[in-house]
Amino acid sequence: MTDTSKANFISDMKRRIKETKTTRWVRFGIVTAIFIAWVAWLGSWWVLIFLPLLFDIYITGYIPFTWWKNSKNKAVRTIMSWVDAIVYALILVYFVFTFVGQNYQIPSSSLEKSLLVGDYLWVNKMAYGPRVPMTPIHFPLVQNTFPIINTKSYIEWPQWKYHRLKGLGDVESGDIVVFNFPAGDTVALKVQNPDYYTLVKMFGRETILANEKEFGEVIYRPVDRRENYVKRAVGLPGERIKIVDGQIYINGEKQPMPTDVQFNYYFQTSRPLSNLDWEKLGIAKDDRNEVKVTPTDIESLKLLGFTVNADGSVPPVYVSPLTQSMVKSLQDNPEVLKLMKMPAPKGEYLFPDGVSANWTRADYGELWIPKKGETIQLNAENWAIYERVIRNYEYHPDAYIKDGTVYIDGKPADTYTFMMDYYFMMGDNRDNSLDSRYWGFVPEDHIVGKPMRVLVSFDKDKGLLNGGIRWNRILKDANAGF
């Protein structure tokens, strides 16, 4: 740049600054203050390099962001005005959803009756500190897949390292937490329930990869683009968890049950239940299950105390998840002939493989939950418990066990120090929740936020004009239960 052109540029900039209206200076000052405060919270001062861009947008206007306003073509002005508004809205949504909070829908019954299917929650991301995007280039209104066109809603590059900003507190025992599904790193697109790793146990990896028509393409998803789950934190970093007959023990101490915890029960009634009976009990349609009794079941039913009529017929037997208040209601009902808690089945695919061979979802553990900075001894006995943590979550893919010796990064290792905190998550609908008992620990970098309020709630079993909106749940505390 010559001296003349430099002088002309400076003169022009002074003119533009002088001609800027006071209102734009005020707006620039407010936006700049917010921007600097955000950068300080972010802890990355290099982001201030974008401050001159803000100055140009509000004051000097050298970059022609609003070129379309001077177009002689009315169609161009109309279209670009919409584009401009949409872009600004998406940028705002991106920052709000990333650093403040976001709405989420409850899709499954794993937390009933604490949270219901059809609840739309406001999740506070500042509660535990918002997570800086690990996959920064993504469409803010969908998690990982555009509906209808079924394509990825994110670009995998660049990938940023995990970093969480300072929050209002830490995850506490009993908190209901939204997190990215840890076992959702690998996905068979056509069969996502059960998850990929359970499919591998059922069919074998080679079978899944060889049958793309049945299982779909197998893909990898970054941490923050994995499906969102919501469960209750029942075990914190450094604690030892054990479950005995459905009762959780932490470090040997019995823990209180959530108010609306549910377990599956068999119950027999003297007559078939009507829809009104089910609604009075508060049992959703998906949970109204009648047991199909065959002649070979008769003797077993008698031994368990169920009623069998003289002619060999059996009054209806049902199985449903029940809270303690629902159990009491059935116990007080003279039409209920038998009520029995359903025993937990054996042979489920529980975490961790091998170690859990004799465990059930009701009698589970004991497990030590990894804690940041804690060091453990590594051996053949506990490798199955912590292998996935070390290999997948803490990024040591070259970790394995051979002839009883553990190798990490290709070198023998008899100890390991954890880099992150981990959590044990469970649903309140204990017998109908795929949770940490099945897929293991939740790493801290998967934590999304804390549900605060139910924004609105829809009952899928009813029409909008026939009780479909649960008015009593609007603005209800979404993190209650103890």
What does this structure look like?
The chain is an alpha+beta fold and 482 residues long. It is 28% helix and 21% strand. The chain has helices spanning 3-19, 22-42, 51-60, 74-99, 196-203, 205-210, 212-215, 275-281, 298-303, 324-331, 383-393, 436-439, 464-468, and strands at residues 101-105, 119-124, 176-180, 186-188, 218-220, 228-235, 240-244, 247-250, 253-254, 263-269, 289-290, 317-322, 336-341, 364-368, 375-377, 399-402, 405-408, 411-412, 415-417, 422-426, 442-443, 447-457. The strands form 6 sheets. It has a 7-stranded antiparallel beta sheet. A 4-stranded antiparallel beta sheet has the order 9-8-7-14, with no helix packed on it. A hairpin with a 2-residue loop joins strand 17 and strand 18. The longest helix is centred in the N-terminal third of the chain and has 26 residues, at 74-99. The radius of gyration is 28 Å and the shape is globular.
General form:
globular
Work out the radius of gyration: 28 Å
- Count of helix runs: 13
- Fraction of residues in H or I helices: 25-40%
Structural class determined from secondary elements: alpha+beta
Mean pLDDT: 92
Biggest β-sheet: strands ordered side by side in the sheet? 1-2-22-3-6-20-21
Task: Indicate the proportion of strand residues.
Answer: 15-25%
Q: Give the CA-CA distance, first to last residue.
A: 69 Å
Oligomer: single chain
- Sequence stretches where pLDDT stays below 50 over 5 or more residues: none
Number of DSSP-assigned strands = 22
* Largest beta-sheet characterization: 7 strands, antiparallel
